Amino acid sequence: MAILLELRPETEARLKAEANTRGIPMEQYAGTVLEHALGQPSPDPTLGLFAMWAAEDATDDPAEIERRRHECAELLVNLRANRTHFRESCP
């Protein structure tokens, strides 16, 4: 994809100098710089969403951490109970 960027003269000069140092065209170097600045894309957008939710819900409150552990343990007990019930009710 081609894009047009308006750069300050100082930025353009730095970009040209760095590209020349590496022996590659300025446009190619600019693309490399942008890719590096943006970081690696998440292989699965869902994982990125989970990470965002985890960051939003992060806490260091001991009472809240214990409440969450209890809630998780209760969920696992209920899932196991439902799985056992389902197996017993299938032909």
* Spatial shape: elongated
For the secondary structure, the number of strands is 0
Strand fraction: under 5%
Class per helix and strand makeup = mainly alpha
Largest sheet, in brief, is:
none
Helix content: over 70%
Order of SSEs, N→C?
HHHH
The N- and C-terminal alpha carbons lie at a distance of 58 Å
Task: Work out the count of structural domains.
Answer: 2
Stretches where pLDDT is under 50 for at least 5 consecutive residues are none
Brief sketch in words of this structure:
By secondary structure, this protein is mainly alpha-helical. The chain is 75% helix and 0% strand.
Description of the molecule:
The chain is mainly α and about 90 residues long. It has two domains: about 30 residues; about 45 residues, no CATH class. It is elongated, with a radius of gyration of 26 Å. The protein starts with 8 loop residues before the first helix and ends with a helix. The model has no long low-confidence stretch (mean pLDDT about 85).
Characteristic key phrases:
single chain; 91 residues; mainly alpha; 0% strand; elongated
Q: Secondary structure elements and their pairing?
A:
Layout: H1 9-22, H2 26-38, H3 45-57, H4 62-89
